[in-house]
């Protein structure tokens, strides 16, 4: 633990820390461009220069200098001030002064640091260099003249995304950052380089010229595009969410978000359901709320009532719907829309027990029927980190590109009954072994995978290596609220009255009774429903979500819903009046109190504790994994299907359509 | 960038070079190069393999050779490295040609010592021989490129033609060399004024007492300014 002095302040930093980190520990701000906590050190911008004694009598790049005992670091001396001014001047030589038309304006590191550390004026009267734009795909817009060659984007693509497609070509003054042959970057994490880029060289293409950061209202909430529960901030102006950026949460998403999280938001203003409809003569006819409720009240359900939860709904909605169904005498609930019927008697057996952050520490990993890269991209990046630390990865399922080398064992589920020797060896020597079971294996292989807990010693002191990855933001919350029928969704098919909560992935043709769709987008559900009630999306309600590791998180409302749409819980509350079974809560707070009483684990944010018990579902696995549940990463739910950006991503990145030409 | 070459990745280039593979001879050399590096460090072979590939392309096209994109990709696959990583290397070094060149790639140094030594005359000679900067002569023989310092400053001005350096040039010697090449002769590389290496032209000007025998200068040191 080196002890050193920064501007006279004594600090002690962990072994291996850099001088820059020591300065931060001492509360000193060190300007930087290339250095980033989560990327390797490049040391090429020189903005972080400080004076260090003992050492050569010249400024030193603090980001690449190891902190050592008895060092004295100075961050305010004339030498440092001069150095910063000099570097700033050099950086600005070839940086255009186009801040007024630059999307980064207002949140630009170069702008801020030039104000804070640069000279007040320019001495440069020569020509500036110009660099042609590079095509990087549907998400990232480039204005490469602004690039300061910090190489953060290059390092991110290589180290975090695992997609080595961005690089620096040519050299010296001619150096240019580009994707390989200016083709679209094929990473679902590409949008993160927009945040990483300290200048306006890489900006968000869908958000281009939409707004200035200071006009935006910033709301902290939770993403629902997958079950990871990425912590996000929705930036809105008026009634529209203009962009979505990740917040830092070390336990969940670190500071990343995938492109669906970021860019599905333009789907929030398209294909919205903004008034109630009732099907008359095969056609949906707009009606008033009251008429819609009456149409439901007219259904003779004989207590055969059910609710199907969609993938994006919050716990409050599910609780309210459940309360109504119960009040009507029904008791069938399901959220696993595509027919999964795994045992849910032990929530720990269907949970991501290692935790997302814990994944990094695993030393042997077996993926069973999961295309983790699409099912939970931000868990996939953790697996990459584990591999960097030496973990070995095996996979059962059809081969797919995971951004790292996995040893593919084949797509036969029966492999679970008798794992190859290589796997046994690797797991035998592993201290923190991990099995990750995906949707493709849950159907036939849940029991056999649970068998591995004993066979591979997955549970040890302080370590639970059994994991299931879910893909729906509503899944764990739904399971906690009892949205699981014994035989899966098939148990609900004959219900006389079914409420669909934004459920757009179910096979509606199997449902014979009266169908009420409560949701926000005109997607599959609205096409089949008898009554459509306009609810709100995740951006328009405050809600509780439980992510795949059982982490309870709450998000806030960012904007108001369009038209006549109402918050889902209040729809059920209002409907209950008309149906003559008034629900006992009048506010979201009241609803929450009841919900917490019913499921106490939802009260506190953070990991819900599921006690580990082994469900009685042993048995051997058989069959092959034909494919993974997600066929198209960019179009997995109603919001992204309505999003032009996601459609474009899908066409270009999944279906290989060529847009490079069309985009200037 | 005005002077960054346009990367050729057209359908014809793909069609012509898509099936690039080592000749037997080069395959042996490639194996040897790759074998020099420990497993997992094959990326280190990028430069020698790109050079080998450029030479093979040169042999196939009777030019100095260049690196079409499919050939760069071929090299990357050989060593299991993402395309962009090898592509970065190929674009970084000016010795790798990203566009076709002629039989002789005339690289004339235009950096300060060579300018002071008279590189203007060298360029003039090239020009009068029909060479245009950045272009290949219509007969496909010469491509002229102005380059930065090639480390031969003490023999300035200089030019590099394919693998040979021609030094201590002036207008006439440059013309002579170009004419010889055009005739199909092989002009002698190195200094064109008869220097063996970079010894002072016209004989030593310092330490002259040392030319014949060893001489102890220490007694003559002016210690007054030492320190
Ligand atoms: S594009 Fe941005 S992130 Fe990438 S090197 Fe340039 S300045 Fe850095
Ligand atoms: S931050 Fe240290 S050199 Fe860039
Ligand atoms: S300046 Fe011409 S070789 Fe160095």
UniProtKB/TrEMBL annotation, chain A:
Locate the 2Fe-2S ferredoxin-type domain: which residues? 2-79
- Drop me one GO molecular function for this one: metal ion binding
**A Pfam family:** Fer2_4
List residues of the 4Fe-4S Mo/W bis-MGD-type domain. 216-272
Please give the catalytic activity noted in the UniProt record. Answer: a quinone + NADH + 5 H(+)(in) = a quinol + NAD(+) + 4 H(+)(out)
**Which residue range or ranges hold the 4Fe-4S His(Cys)3-ligated-type domain?**
79-118
For the protein in the UniProt heading, the enzyme class is translocase
Tell me the keywords, alphabetical order.
2Fe-2S, 4Fe-4S, Iron, Iron-sulfur, Metal-binding, NAD, Quinone, Translocase
Q: How is the cofactor bound?
A: Binds 1 [2Fe-2S] cluster per subunit.
Quote the EC number.
7.1.1.-
Identify which cofactors the protein needs according to its UniProt entry.
[2Fe-2S] cluster; [4Fe-4S] cluster
UniProt superkingdom: Bacteria
| Gene Ontology BP, a term | ATP synthesis coupled electron transport
Tell me a GO cellular component: membrane
SUPFAM superfamilies assigned:
2Fe-2S ferredoxin-like, 4Fe-4S ferredoxins, Formate dehydrogenase/DMSO reductase, domains 1-3
The record's NCBIfam families line, in alphabetical order, gives: NuoG
| Biological role | NDH-1 shuttles electrons from NADH, via FMN and iron-sulfur (Fe-S) centers, to quinones in the respiratory chain. Couples the redox reaction to proton translocation (for every two electrons transferred, four hydrogen ions are translocated across the cytoplasmic membrane), and thus conserves the redox energy in a proton gradient.
The UniProt similarity line reads: Belongs to the complex I 75 kDa subunit family.
> What name does UniProt use for this protein?
NADH-quinone oxidoreductase
Q: From which source organism is this entry?
A: Sphingomonas gellani
Automatic annotation (TrEMBL), chain B:
Translocase among keywords: yes
Source taxon at top rank: Bacteria
**Catalytic reaction(s) noted:** a quinone + NADH + 5 H(+)(in) = a quinol + NAD(+) + 4 H(+)(out)
- Listed GO molecular functions? 2 iron, 2 sulfur cluster binding; active transmembrane transporter activity; inorganic cation transmembrane transporter activity; metal ion binding; monoatomic cation transmembrane transporter activity; NADH dehydrogenase activity
Q: Where does [2Fe-2S] cluster bind?
A: 109, 114, 149, 153
Q: Which cofactor does it need?
A: [2Fe-2S] cluster
Report the record's Gene Ontology biological process terms. inorganic cation transmembrane transport
Alphabetically sorted, this entry's keywords are: 2Fe-2S, Iron, Iron-sulfur, Metal-binding, NAD, Translocase
Q: Which GO terms describe its cellular component?
A: catalytic complex; membrane protein complex; organelle envelope; organelle membrane
Q: Which InterPro entries match?
A: NuoE-like, NuoE_dom, NuoE_N, Thioredoxin-like_sf
Which segments carry the region annotation Disordered? 183-208
Entry cofactor note text? Binds 1 [2Fe-2S] cluster.
| NCBIfam families found in the cross-reference section | nuoE_fam (TIGR01958)
What family name appears in the similarity comment? Belongs to the complex I 24 kDa subunit family.
* Protein name per UniProt: NADH dehydrogenase subunit E
Give the originating organism.
Answer: Sphingomonas gellani
